[in-house]
Every structure is written in C-alpha cells, then in structure tokens.
Specification:
- The protein is of the alpha+beta class and 217 residues long.
- It contains 5 helices and 9 strands, in the order ββαααβαββββαββ.
- The chain has one domain.
- Helix content is 21%, strand content 25%.
- This is BURP domain-containing protein 3-like protein.
C-alpha cells in the first residue's frame, strides 16, 4: 500500500518485511514516512462492533481474572469459545504491570476512558483523535477483544502523524502512525528486526482503526 504524506520526514528508505501484516504488527523507521514507500497492511477492528456500556452498567460487571467464571456466566459466553479466550487474554493484559514511567488502566466505559485521559494528561481540555494529532504527550487507548467495548489505555510520549494510504485496488485510508523513542510494549522486539539500537531512533507503527489517541487541546 503506497504511502502519501502531507509533509516529508527524511530520505528514502525501504520498509521492513513482516511475517504478519496486521497494521499494528509492522514496525518501521520514521524516515520511511514519505511518498512512494510501500508495505502490506490489513486494517482490522479488534472490537468487531462491540458496544460501549454505560458507566453504571460496566461497573456492575466483575472485571478480574479471578472472577472469570462469573464474568462468562454474566455475559452468556461459552467457556470453550473463542470469545472466552479473548476475554481471558484481555483480563491478563489489563492486570499486567505498567512499564516504568507509564500509567495504565483498562477502560470499560466512555466515562472511565475520559476520566483516565484527563488524569493522565492533567487537563480537562482534551480531544480524541483517530486520524491526526500533533502532540507528543498522549494517552493511547487500544481496543481489546471482549464481549463489550474495553480499551487498554496508557500514557505515552510519541510523535504521531496522519498518513494518506492508497491500496493496490485504489482504496484510500487516512491512517495514524505513532513513533516511539522508548521501548514500549512490542517496540523492543522491533528494534532487533530493524537492526537499530533501542533509543537511538524512533520506531513507528500504524494504529488499528478502532484505537484512539487523546491529546490536550
């Protein structure tokens, strides 16, 4: 999928090959964000149309690995199903420790997501963006596999770019690319694949279409 940008960021560079072409699984260098670069990408939705629950309803449902049988029963999910596996995986990820300097939560409602974004960015004047942002201090919210909408939100420092993509079949996408200097989740392995030292250059990836970034206005 050729990349078209509104602004150049550096010299021409080949994008790395990847065994998986899910949009969040491919990492590349910031200088690759320029017209003419190509890669194979699949934009997917982790939530598959899952609904956001009202705050009071979400808070009434257990959200803990220790309560997994009760959760599956409350949500009428077959314990042997793929959805049950997704729920278990999401709970484990939500309960994992934050990275050094990171603050994280799993938001089970829009209200809890907004509250976390305001707390993490120390501001009530925020905007949610999924296609463009110019801030460096952000709260990123990644959609998780669950019976209802759950977002894994965390504070992060990154540069973000709007990128115009055109597919081989002419499909056009306005995508959001985030470039990290730190070894965030998944980025550590990307440094090895790109043959660069951690922290030496930003490592970038596209965000899936159901992810959100929060920034100060």
């Amino acid at each position: 999928m050729p990349i078209h940008r509104q602004r150049r960021t550096g010299g021409k560079a080949a994008l790395p090959a990847a065994s998986e072409d899910n949009v969040g699984s491919i990492f590349f260098l910031e200088k690759s964000l320029q017209p003419g670069s190509t890669m194979t990408l699949h934009f997917t939705c982790a939530t598959a149309g899952a609904s956001l629950l009202p705050h009071q309803v979400a808070d009434s449902i257990p959200f803990s690995s220790s309560k997994l049988p009760e959760i599956l029963s409350r949500l009428s999910v077959d314990p042997s199903s793929e959805m049950a596996s997704s729920i278990k995986k999401t709970l484990v990820e939500c309960e994992s420790k934050a990275l050094p300097g990171e603050i994280k939560t799993c938001a089970t409602s829009l209200e809890s997501m907004v509250d976390f974004a305001m707390s993490g960015l120390k501001s009530k004047n925020l905007r949610a963006v999924s296609t463009s942002v110019k801030a460096s201090e952000l709260v990123a919210c990644h959609a998780q596999g669950y019976s209802y909408a759950v977002f894994h939100c965390h504070t992060t420092t990154a540069s973000a770019y709007t990128v115009s993509l055109v597919g081989a079949d002419g499909t056009k996408v306005q995508a959001l690319a985030a470039c990290h200097m730190d070894a965030a989740s998944g980025v550590e392995e990307a440094y090895k694949k790109l043959s660069v030292k951690p922290g030496s250059v930003p490592v970038c990836h596209f965000l899936p279409q159901d992810d959100l970034l929060w920034a100060r206005v």
